Amino acid sequence: MSLEMIKSEPIYKGRLVSFQVDTLRTAKGKEIKREVLVHPGAAVIIPKLDSDRVLLVRQYRHAAERVLWEFPAGTLEPNETTEHCARRELREETGYEVKTLKPILAFYPSPGVNQEKMFLFIAEGLKLVDEIPMEADEIRAETRKITELKQMVDRGEIVDAKTIIGVYYLILEERG
């Protein structure tokens, strides 16, 4: 199934994202409009401290109006590779550098309205190099056992989609 792009109208351009309204033509000739959030993409990191412990970060997310538990993640800078972004964000958010970074999968978190593509990595061989990587009131890294993560999802403590995907990846990985 394919749609023909007729025009794209920019609505807003911000520091990280922009919005546009696209006018498309269907195979049957009908014109439709789609509102699109344009985003450069992001890297998501599952930082494994050892075989049964990972790092999560807690940070306030204004759009969700609450503090969320998440795997570290961040937006790609212009011309930045996903691997470089993952390494940079891990250090900025947790203070850790990574020896081994393994790409796992890529996914669209909300493809109905958002172009953002997220790239999930597992980070192993972590070394703490920065005790306080970011402002303490902005973000805090904490250790959790992998076995606790599913319970945190079930209790509604982890509600962030990228983190839930990472949790279920870890569960499936352990099952072989």
Written description of the protein model:
The chain has 176 residues and is of the alpha+beta class. It folds into 2 domains: 4-38, no CATH class; 42-175, Nucleoside Triphosphate Pyrophosphohydrolase (Alpha-Beta Complex). It is built from 3 helices and 10 strands. It has helices at 82-94, 146-154, 161-175; strands spanning 4-13, 18-25, 31-38, 42-50, 53-61, 66-70, 73-75, 96-107, 118-128, 139-145. β1 (4-13) and β2 form a beta hairpin. The two termini are 36 Å apart.
What key phrases describe this protein's structure?
176 residues, alpha+beta, Nucleoside Triphosphate Pyrophosphohydrolase, 2 domains, seven-stranded mixed beta sheet, three-stranded antiparallel beta sheet, 3 helices, 10 strands, 21% helix, elongated
**Which CATH top level class of the largest domain fits?**
Alpha Beta
SS-based class: alpha+beta
Name given to the CATH homologous superfamily of the largest domain: Nucleoside Triphosphate Pyrophosphohydrolase
List unreliable stretches of 5+ residues: none
CATH topology of the largest domain: Nucleoside Triphosphate Pyrophosphohydrolase
Q: How many structural domains are formed by the residues?
A: 2
Q: Can you name the CATH architecture of the largest domain?
A: Alpha-Beta Complex
Write a short abstract of this structure.
The protein has helices at 82-94, 146-154, 161-175, and strands at 4-13, 18-25, 31-38, 42-50, 53-61, 66-70, 73-75, 96-107, 118-128, 139-145.
